[in-house]
Design goal:
By secondary structure, the chain is mainly β. The protein has one domain: Glycosyl hydrolase domain, family 43 (Tachylectin-2, Chain A, 5 Propeller). It has one helix and 20 strands. A hairpin with a 2-residue loop joins strand 14 and strand 15.
Length: 347
Amino acid sequence: MPEDSIDHIDFEALNQRAISQPLVTALYTADPSAHVFEGRIYIYPSHDVDAGDAFDDLGSHFAMEDYHVFSMQEPQGPVTDHGVGLHMHDVPWVSKQMWAPDAAENEGKYFLFFPAKDHDGIFRIGVATSASPAGPFKPEALPITDSFSIDPAVFKDDDGSYYMYFGGIWGGQLQRWRSGCFNADAPDSPVAHLPANDEPALCAKMARLTSDLLQFETLPQDIVILDEQQKPLLQGDTNRRFFEAAWMHKHNGLYYFTYSTGDTHFICYATGQTPSGPFTYRGRILEPVVGWTTHHSICQWKGQWYLFYHDSSLSKGVTHLRSIKMTPLAHNEDGTIAVVKPYADHI
């Protein structure tokens, strides 16, 4: 929910009406990526700090520098903070802004995927490894070749293939890559080089990973979202088009591509028959939360699906000081997902 609409909110009453409470209160956390590793739920969020940077639509005030790793034995159980899993000072190519990460496991080895700006101010995606899901993680010396933009999310399919979904517009720079290479001459504006409202929307990207999960095996391709007439969503369809926060999960043989609409503050989903799509828009998963951003992950624990998300209720609406939360998620028999309303009534 935009900051200009929170002045009237009674945050004490809001928190009483919230369907879930922050999982972590000792520090601010956001963009939770949740996975079940070694019989525990592990959460890999970004770590919000108040660095004093100016607020702008390019996200300069999101000046995160490190990642903490959290885990719990079961939903609603005590949360363990395993400390800093990776810091920007450990990564030679990173200059600033370690944004939303994700994690994966392969043959007993754990991988942390993360976006950050390099020393040219361009977002790239890096990878770090550990023998433990709790870290600490050792980064590769260079970012993944041909990687760009933000919000990596790694999905393992039933055949053992791994795919990375990524991308984000505005501050995530996806619009600067429309020509296939970074447009360094683009004006420093979130709307520069976006398609026109009546043109197909910018798409999230997907690449299959190599068997060691350290590089792209294929070049990134578009993840196209279709409307009810099987035509690509348009850039002006801001309530449905992709903005950032890609995630993939599979249920009953159906692939669910979920994402944030950014400036309209919804988490939406589209379904397809393959991990590369195309995907058909199906609806919303999460209604707007307090705070400008919305970012999620979806994880299954003992047959029950859970939605992990964040809001800014603990910081009383401060956009860049968020807190991670979780709530059950229900798939309906027809393949749709029940919409989650984060507060007991409209705020």
